[in-house]
């Protein structure tokens, strides 16, 4: 999932096996079936503005992001297994298994 049309087109052009791409905002993404897991690469760095971080809202916003991914995209919400792996450049990795 990406917001970049050019990035989505490059991924499609590579014709990678078992890889699909959607060009949309993660908040609007509705998978046709739940995923076993979701990995978020460098997304978490863009969830909180500097002002929100200074106001102490970072952890709350990160938790909301991770909880939403599990609730709407992972099969764990359907009673099986699922998790979110979120990593960012310069931030620690967070694993949510909810």
Order of helices and strands: HEHHEE
Spans where pLDDT lies below 50 across 5 or more residues: 92-98
Chain-averaged pLDDT: 76
State the helix count: 3
Radius of gyration: 14 Å
Helix- and strand-based class? alpha+beta
Largest sheet: 3 strands, mixed
What overall geometry do the principal axes of the alpha carbons give? globular
Terminus-to-terminus distance:
22 Å
Please report which band the strand proportion falls in: under 5%, 5-15%, 15-25%, 25-35%, 35-45% or over 45%: 15-25%
Say how many strands there are. Answer: 3
Strand order of the largest sheet: 1-2-3
Portion in helices: 25-40%
What are the SSEs and their pairings?
Blueprint: H1 5-14, E1 37-41, H2 50-54, H3 58-73, E2 83-88, E3 91-96
Parallel strand pairs: 1-2
Antiparallel strand pairs: 2-3
Q: TL;DR?
A:
With 98 residues, the protein is α+β, with helices and mostly antiparallel strands. The protein has helices at 5-14, 50-54, 58-73; strands at 37-41, 83-88, 91-96. The longest helix has 16 residues, at 58-73.
Would you write up a description of this structure?
- The structure is a single chain.
- The radius of gyration is 14 Å and the shape is globular.
- The chain has a three-stranded mixed beta sheet, covered by helices on one side.
- 12% of the residues are buried.
- Strand 2 and strand 3 (91-96) form a beta hairpin.
- Residues 92-98 have low confidence and may be disordered.
- The protein is built from three helices and three strands.
- Helices cover 32% and strands 17% of the residues.
- With 98 residues, the chain is an alpha+beta fold.
- It has helices at residues 5-14, 50-54, 58-73, and strands spanning 37-41, 83-88, 91-96.
């Amino acid at each position: 999932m990406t917001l970049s049309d050019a990035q989505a087109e490059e991924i499609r052009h590579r014709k990678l096996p078992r890889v699909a791409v959607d060009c949309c905002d993660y908040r609007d993404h509705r998978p046709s079936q739940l995923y076993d897991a979701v990995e978020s690469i460098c997304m978490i760095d863009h969830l909180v503005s500097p002002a929100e971080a200074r106001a102490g809202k970072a952890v709350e916003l990160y938790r909301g992001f991770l909880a939403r991914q599990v609730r709407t995209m992972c099969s764990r919400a359907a009673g099986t297994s699922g998790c979110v792996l979120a990593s960012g450049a310069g931030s620690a990795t967070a694993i949510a298994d909810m």
